[in-house]
Amino acid sequence: MLSCKDVSRLLSLSMDQSLPLRKRIEIRIHIWFCKACPNLEKQLLFLRQAARRLDEEALQSDQVKLSAEARERIRKAVRP
Ligand SMILES: [Zn+2]
Question: 39 C-alpha to center of ligand 1: Å?
Fold first, then answer.
């Protein structure tokens, strides 16, 4: 069984890369039983959504003039 520390580390990691199915299942089982980790997951998902929204607004804004290359770099960084 994963500890809360393991889960918080893995959840952060999962924001940047996809985890193996086995790890994802272990996380889900932990979150099912844990009182603290569901909140942590919600916060991480909220932050990720907020970051994506900011990214999209910035890319659509006429105020921000970025080269196509820079836009692509940002897109890849946010959505690997
Ligand atoms: Zn936990």
Answer: 9
